[in-house]
Amino acid sequence: MMSVTARSGALGPYLSATAQAVASHLRPPVYCASSAAQIVLPSKKQNLTTDSLRSIAPLTGNVKVTTGPHGPMQVRYAHSDVKVPDFSYYRREPVSDPKQPSEPSAAGRKAFTYALVGSSGVAGAYAAKNVVTDLVSTMCASADVLALAKIEVNLAEIPEGKSVTVKWRGKPLFIRHRTQEEIETEQAVDPTTLRHAEHDNERVQRPEWLITIGVCTHLGCVPIADAGEYGGYFCPCHGSHYDTSGRIRKGPAPENLEVPPYEFMDENTVVVG
After folding, report:
1. Could you tell me which of 37, 41, 33 has the C-alpha nearest to residue 16?
2. pLDDT by residue (tens digit) across 97-154?
3. Does the annotation mark 238 as catalytic?
4. Tens digits of per-residue pLDDT, 48-90?
5. What is the pLDDT of residues 17-41, one digit of tens each?
6. CB 221 within 8 A of CB 162
7. Are 211 and 259 in contact (CB under 8 A)?
8. 8 A C-beta contact, residue 258 and residue 242
9. Choosing from 177, 196, 238, 241, which is the catalytic residue?
10. Measuring CA to CA, which residue among 232, 237, 265 is closest to residue 163?
11. How far is the C-alpha of 80 from the C-alpha of 33, rounded, in Å?
């Protein structure tokens, strides 16, 4: 019978294995004797402690021995021959000597730093302003588009009772010099009887001048001036009739002719847009 202890860990050197032999008619006992005069056991392993490490450490030099209950014991040798980096090249002149105090020159060094940071901020802000200005300017209308945004018309060239057509922003613009009879007729119309109720005074700044965009509000056709049943404008495409105030009186158009923004500069000049 054999009994063996396994997985002993740190107690392995102190454990032993034994064997027992029982004689029988199948296995007779065998007697043997050790030839050694004395059995030699291995020496006990020396435990590493602070004292034992200190005893094997050199007596001279920078040596540090450390140990602890939860960590390995070790001997550390300090590298005293490592050269300290020299930062003299990067030091400013007032603090080039490490043995001199830096407080007397602190104000001057701070002033230089603040001046450098401030000038950099101003330069950065100026550059950012130019970048933003250039970016926004690319989104603005071009010079030719701005030139067509407004149009100046000389009213002295339009006789009374006549209507002229000029181009404004790619659209026809009707400017009509109305007679006194046309003014009285349009002002006498009751707005409640109209499809798009507007009084004549709401559509003109001066009674004698009617300024409208010459685009039919039905399907965008261009009406004919001085035509139709009401003497104003007539769209031959679908038969929309407008009076001399540009209001729809008959036909499929749902609204009156649009009145653009305009301003009279003097008695004979108007600026549209």
Report:
1. 41
2. 778 888 888 888 888 889 999 999 999 999 999 999 988 888 887 777 777 778 888 8
3. yes
4. 666 666 666 666 555 555 555 555 555 566 667 778 788 878 8
5. 445 555 555 556 555 555 556 666 6
6. no
7. yes
8. no
9. 238
10. 232
11. 61
